């Protein structure tokens, strides 16, 4: 992504599933400490909590809060923050 003009750059191809897996904790799964999967309930969905079954709200459209930055607009700033040279 920041290949030098002389063509000596390389492409790094990383499987995102491996990246995510590397960030997960190896601790044993405790079903009493984690979220419960949603289950169908009538015409909607619900999750079981310590307070009982709670309905899952229907999805709703949200209006954008503003325009997204142009692609690459903050790349130099982000790379600099990571200590990656950009020159």
Structural features, described:
It is a single chain. The protein has 87 residues and is α+β, with helices and mostly antiparallel strands. The protein has two helices and three strands. It has helices at 16-23, 75-81; strands at 39-41, 44-49, 52-55. The protein has a three-stranded antiparallel β-sheet, with no helix packed on it.
Short description:
The protein has helices at residues 16-23, 75-81; strands at 39-41, 44-49, 52-55. The chain is of the alpha+beta class.
Please render the helix and strand layout as text.
Blueprint: H1 16-23, E1 39-41, E2 44-49, E3 52-55, H2 75-81
Antiparallel strand pairs: 1-2, 2-3
Overall strand count: 3
Shape: elongated
- The gyration radius over C-alpha positions equals 22 Å
- In DSSP terms (H or I, runs of 4 or more residues), the helix count works out at 2
Cα separation of the termini: 12 Å
- β-strand amount: 5-15%
Low-confidence parts: none
Helix-strand sequence? HEEEH
